[in-house]
Amino acid sequence: MNETEHLRDQLQLRIDQFLIEHETILARIAPDLATFSTYSQSFLRGGKRFRAIFAYWGWHGVRQTLPGVAQDDAKALHTILGVGAALEIFHAAALAHDDILDNSDTRRGEPAIHRRFEKLSADAGWRGDHAAFGVGSAILFGDMLLSWSDELMYTTLAGLPESAAAPARAEYQQMRTDVTAGQYLDVLEESAWFGHSDEELIERARTILTYKSAKYSVEVPLALGASTAGATPAQIEALREYGLAVGTAFQLRDDILGVFGDARVTGKPSGDDLREGKRTLLVALTRRELPEHERPAFDAQIGNPDLGEDEILALQKLMHDTGAVAETERIIAESVAAGRAALADSTLGADARAALDALAVHMSARSA
User: Fold this and answer.
1) What crossing angle do the helices spanning 281-289 and 324-344 adopt, rounded to 10°?
2) Mean pLDDT, the chain, integer
3) What is the pLDDT of residues 141-153, one digit of tens each?
4) b/e per residue 217-233 (b: at least 16 CB within 10 A)
5) Candidates 1.10.3720.10, 3.40.50.460, 1.10.600.10, 3.40.50.300; CATH matching 3-363
6) CA gap 333, 283 in Å, rounded
7) Which of 112, 159, 310, 313 has the highest count of CB atoms within 10 angstroms of its CB?
8) Closest of 331, 334, 246 to residue 57, by C-alpha
9) Is residue 284 within 8 Å of residue 198, measured between CB atoms?
């Protein structure tokens, strides 16, 4: 077992421990809340754990540079695992809400949370609109996970010296604002894109990917983890530069997979982002290169939930033919190179630099 797999296993144990503790709390309130426990435990199993892994390597990279610090300190490891687990619970909450906003049926090849609650209602023969029950319950489920992520994060950070806890809390709080703002801008863009110039659409798409994903997925977890270890301003700056660049590449790869990904690998139907009307950088670049008379037809297809396989294939071909895919791949490659260069020039520990370098390559070239 390699170090990343071992870290994922340790994170899973930490998450499971937290959820089991809260299963007991929910059971004392009412038996009907057992569904929340069951769904949270299944929804939080597996996954890539990128955010927790980046938090760990930010932490580890700083600790490697501190004189007289034992690298196998069990208490310190427990702390960073708590931080990572809190980030993963926050991410699960965001996914539950995101699937409602996107009207997605699946997540990682399994029913989305609102679809699980909808089926629960239908199978039990409860009165009322089963779909509405599913959405309402999933919103509350996501809210519960958000409160749990806060609880775990702040309880964990309370065990640190205030000099480390304060900047870590600030990172986490800013992340919550950034990702919510980015998510709203993403929803807004599906309706408010019309009337903007091509260059404005490209800039708006970049802003969305920065705040909805790049900072939240890579930059902030790195800075948060490093803060808990007492990072210097220079170390934080290097991690931010790496994190924003690699986070950009991560999201752009996600955008490509949302259009071209294999459903058997991604767990979501191929072309799902096109049906949902995601105004990604890939879409903006495609539109910019289209002749004026072809744009109305293109605009009408982006966000059409009834797109068939042939129409998806035609849009995929258009994205290739306009050069939008090649341009996106170029930006990904440049972003990864910039991130790796920032890391190479940093004062972080060698093990962390090697691990983060490998993660930059993996995240930009993944298939799911």
Assistant:
1) 130
2) 94
3) 999 999 999 999 9
4) bbbbbbbbbbbbbbbee
5) 1.10.600.10
6) 19
7) 112
8) 246
9) yes
pLDDT reported for residue 125: 97
| Contacts of range 172-181, beta carbons closer than 8 Å, 24 or more positions apart | 172/86, 172/220, 172/224, 174/220, 175/215, 175/216, 175/220, 175/224, 176/90, 178/211, 178/215, 178/216, 178/220, 179/94, 179/211, 179/212, 179/215, 179/216, 181/211
Convert the pLDDT of each residue in 195-210 to its tens digit. 899 999 999 999 999 9
Give the integer Cα–Cα distance in Å for 244 and 339. 8
What is the reported pLDDT for 266?
A: 64
Amino acid residing at 235 = Q
Per-residue model confidence as pLDDT tens digits over 283-294: 999 999 999 999
